TrEMBL record:
It comes from the Bacteria. This is Nitroreductase family protein. GO terms for molecular function: oxidoreductase activity. Gene3D superfamilies: NADH Oxidase. Residues 31-190 form the Nitroreductase domain.
């Protein structure tokens, strides 16, 4: 396959430069919503693994790949997580087909000899730098979290990300052994009806959010 623009010829793209079809752009962004109400359809571990298998190719600094996932499925685990969520979000955790706790792994550097062989020595450099590793893990895991939300949509699933949980409590409850640090949770399933009662809110435009120098 060539990398020139001839692959775009003949297709009816709505925007100059958009290299995916209108349907794909709608599925991933324009018609996707943040979903709070899900059907009872199951979401399997295989589906989640397939989404991860796709989004793991998204870029991170030094290929650190610090995002970690806890798949919360059993009623007992849901109850433990729900107790650590703000009251308004508890019921959603209990009702969703499955909930993911997204976390950052400050121990990501141990994988650098494999993930970044050109910078393998950084594993030793970063070992004593716990604060730097925390910051790198958090920044890059959050980037991966964005990929994951879009990846779920690409798999025909809907995502309901929720912040506001007691992250230290979640870490103590679920990550005492791994040292992972929770970021936020994402309910996953298929939307029931519109999936949300909120009308779509405006978005800032490129002009609102950019400067050109
Ligand atoms: C990291 C993150 C945390 C969020 N936390 C909450 C939350 O705690 N409660 C909530 O109702 N919505 C939460 N949201 C949903 C956002 O408000 C929602 O994605 C945004 O308003 C856009 O909605 P839309 O995708 O339906 O257009 C969160 C979204 C993200 C990405």
């Amino acid at each position: 396959m060539t990398t020139d623009v001839t692959v775009l010829d003949g297709l009816d793209f709505p925007l100059p430069g958009l290299a995916v079809s209108d349907d794909v752009a709608d599925l991933l962004f324009r018609e996707a919503r943040t979903v709070g109400a899900f059907t009872q359809d199951d979401v399997t571990d295989e589906q989640i693994a397939a989404v991860y298998d796709l989004v793991r190719w998204g870029p991170t600094a030094m290929n650190t790949i610090p995002l970690r996932l806890l798949v919360v499925r059993t009623p007992e685990a849901r109850a433990r997580l729900a107790a650590l969520m703000p009251e308004g979000n508890r019921e959603r955790v209990l009702a969703a087909p499955v909930t993911l706790v997204l976390a950052a792994d400050p121990g990501f550097h141990k994988h650098l000899p494999v993930l970044a062989p050109h910078m393998a020595s950084y594993a030793d450099v970063l070992e004593p730098q716990a604060d730097t590793r925390d910051q790198m893990a958090r920044t890059n895991a959050l980037i991966q979290a964005g990929y994951l939300i879009v990846g779920l949509r690409a798999a025909g699933l809907d995502a309901g990300p929720m912040a506001g949980g007691d992250t230290q409590g979640i870490d103590a409850e679920f990550f005492a052994e791994t040292g992972w640090k929770s970021l936020f949770v994402v309910n996953v399933g298929r939307r029931e009806g519109a999936g949300t009662h909120r009308p779509r809110a405006e978005r800032l435009t490129f002009a609102d959010t950019s400067l050109t120098v």
